[in-house]
Amino acid sequence: MKSLGILLSGRGSNFVAIADSIDAGRIPDARISVVISNRADAPGIAIARARGLTALVVPSKGRAREEHDREVVAALNQHRVDLVCLAGYMRLLSPSFVQEFPHRILNIHPSLLPAFPGLEAQEQAFAYGVKVSGCTVHFVDEELDHGAIIVQKTVPVLDGDDEHTLATRILEQEHLAYTEAIKIVLGGSFEVAGRRFVAS
Ligand code: GRF
User: Fold this and answer.
1) Atom of ligand 1 nearest to the CA of 15
2) Mean local confidence (pLDDT), 78-88
């Protein structure tokens, strides 16, 4: 049985999608052993508690990144987490955090990386006028929205879209993509050669 640790800062819809996938057997032999937020008011934390999961708040405000990250890493290790899933976690991880979990931290980003990294990716894509966008699940490295890509899903930008309708359709694909990526990574049959993730 593999243990997942979920880090989030807000709404938590990707967390819920992962939890639902585990409950439905779409991610076999896995459990969520801890959900951690840097914000006490994150709706995702309330949802985690309502689902009976262990939910912790490790406040980040006013604290040095390294110090905050050390506390988060300690909590993840205490709960024997095998795979860390960032699900709307609005923090850049310190190098020591990343190095603690080599190829064991995933992130989801609402664009086709390397296009539109950073905040408000759907708005950036819409404003740029791309005809196709989507989402990316990737390993986390020391750079923002940067590590090897595990799964991408495309979403067409329709003539009648605004940034909100586009974001909604991307989010539907995010929920599918994250489950797919976690399943592949937990399965362990993959290689990472440079930037290339190849499932075997
Ligand atoms: C998602 O769009 C995700 O791709 C991005 O932050 C958002 C989090 O949404 N990293 P939610 O909290 O999972 O609903």
Assistant:
1) 13
2) 98
Residue nearest atom 1 in ligand 1 by C-alpha distance: 88
Cβ–ligand 1 distance for 145 under 6 Å, the answer no
**Do 111 and 80 share a structural domain?**
no
Amino acid at 38: N
Q: Please report the pLDDT score of residue 75 as a whole number.
A: 98
Domain count, the chain: 2
User: Can you give the residue range of the structural domain that contains 78?
Assistant: 1-101
Could you read off the pLDDT of 101-120 as tens digits, one per residue? 999 999 999 999 999 999 99
Among protein residues, the one whose CA lies closest to atom 9 of ligand 1: 88
Check if 134 has its Cβ closer than 6 Å to any atom of ligand 1. no
